[in-house]
Amino acid sequence: MSLAALLHRHQLAFGPVLPVDLNGPDVIRLDLTDNNALVAEADLRDTAAFEVIVNEMLAREQATIGVGGYLENRVIYRRSQHFGPGQVEEARSLHLGIDVWIAAGTPLLAPLPAVVHSLADNANFGDYGITVILEHELEGTTFYSLYGHLSRKEWTALYVGQKLEKGQAFATVGPYPENGDWPPHLHFQLITDLQGRVGDFPGVARPSERAIWAALCPDPNLVLQSKYL
What we know:
Elements (H helix, E strand, L loop, with lengths): L2 H7 L17 E3 L7 H4 L6 H14 L4 E4 L25 E2 L2 E4 L5 E3 L4 E9 L6 E10 L2 E10 L1 H4 L7 E2 L4 E4 L12 E7 L12 E2 L4 H7 L4 H4 L5
Parallel strand pairs: 1-2
Antiparallel strand pairs: 2-4, 3-12, 4-11, 5-10, 6-7, 6-9, 7-8, 8-11
């Protein structure tokens, strides 16, 4: 059975990843592709200015939380050389997780019992910044959840091998620049096989490799269960 099918079968077992209602009236889906002129025409290298744009998109819809991004071919990664823009090879722009644009300091909760697999500060401009990877097990199948753009404060109290109960708070959404220099948000990603990686895993891929990465990283909304996605 694929991980996606297994997660779909166990949807009632998952707890929230954030202590908010991702189906509430204050949530909207954010488009960060070149179809959105606000981001396509902006210089997003200035993180404070980027945050103003995110807040403007939320305010237009009287929302406080933005969600979206799974397999979205995004224009916003042109802000960082980390993703390869301007190089001869194909740049990475296909997002493999779901982003929840929400205030810094918002707690993160383990959606299932977990063990802390690995921790890292992926400090390149535009990278994950403070990162946590949790290991889970369902029906004998091991899989992983990745949380990027976190706060350093709570992260320093975690350790590899630490056990977490379902619903236990373990980190918070981080401010910039420690979160990889992004407007505050959570990057949440599911992973079938870390391929030997520790504390890091690609969250953005080349569009031509969509099928490969979609198989490795099933839709995180199987866990988040937001009607806006």
